[in-house]
Amino acid sequence: MNEPYSILFQKMKSDAPVKDFLVDFGMVCTDFPLSAPGEVKDLPKRDWADEDGEDTFIPDTLPLKAYDIKISVCYEGAKGTAMDKLEMLLEYLTGADNYGSRLKIYNAMTRTGRQDVYLTKISDTELWQGDNSEILEFNMELHVCDPKTRIIPIYNADDSTIVENLVIRS
């Protein structure tokens, strides 16, 4: 397991607030693989039985496929709070906050971000309870529709620890 850290989310609608995984949900990311997009979409081709090789349309720019990310998450808090926090996260990711479900996401550890991301699954949920606390671990799977556009944070001019917005890197 890597050292836990936070990740940032922001809905794609204008004026949507930036959400910090740790600050807003009390959760940390324990594994977020560096997903380098690079798988090219299947190109249209014809394979004639009476000719060698194949006819493939190869465009000047090869389009990239969308891809999935599997993130491992951990929450530790007072006994009886884990499922409430998970429900709060699920409501946010599924659009119950009235900002929709299309996301921008930024991983500060790897300095990578993407837009047009949505939740596909929360799985492998495990809950451990102690006398006064509990730990919840789960995996969150996201689909990245835009494999190329890079997202970066914009910090507050007065306080460089506050992220005001997630924007397209120019």
Structure characterization notes:
With 170 residues, this protein is mainly β. The chain has two helices and eleven strands; from the N terminus they run E-E-H-E-E-E-E-H-E-E-E-E-E. It has a seven-stranded antiparallel sheet. A two-stranded antiparallel ribbon has the order 4-5. Strand 1 and strand 2 (18-20) form a beta hairpin. The chain is globular and about 75 Å long. The two termini are 33 Å apart. The model has no long low-confidence stretch (mean pLDDT 92).
Quick gist of this model?
This protein is mainly beta.
List the SSEs and their pairings.
Layout: E1 7-11, E2 18-20, H1 21-25, E3 27-31, E4 45-46, E5 55-56, E6 67-78, H2 82-93, E7 103-107, E8 112-129, E9 133-144, E10 151-155, E11 163-168
Antiparallel strand pairs: 1-2, 1-7, 3-6, 4-5, 6-9, 7-8, 8-9, 10-11
Structural features:
single chain; 170 residues; 2 helices; 11 strands; 10% helix
N-to-C order of helices and strands: EEHEEEEHEEEEE
Strand order of the biggest β-sheet: 2-1-7-8-9-6-3
Reported for the largest beta sheet, the result is: 7 strands, antiparallel
**What integer is the average pLDDT?**
92
User: Care to count the β-strands?
Assistant: 11
Distance between the termini: 33 Å
The secondary structure category is mainly beta
Q: Mind telling me the C-alpha Rg? A: 20 Å
Please estimate the helix content: 10-25%
The percentage of residues in β strands lies in 35-45%
Taken from the alpha-carbon principal axes, the silhouette is globular
Q: Provide a count of the helices.
A: 2
**Unreliable segments of 5+ consecutive residues:** none
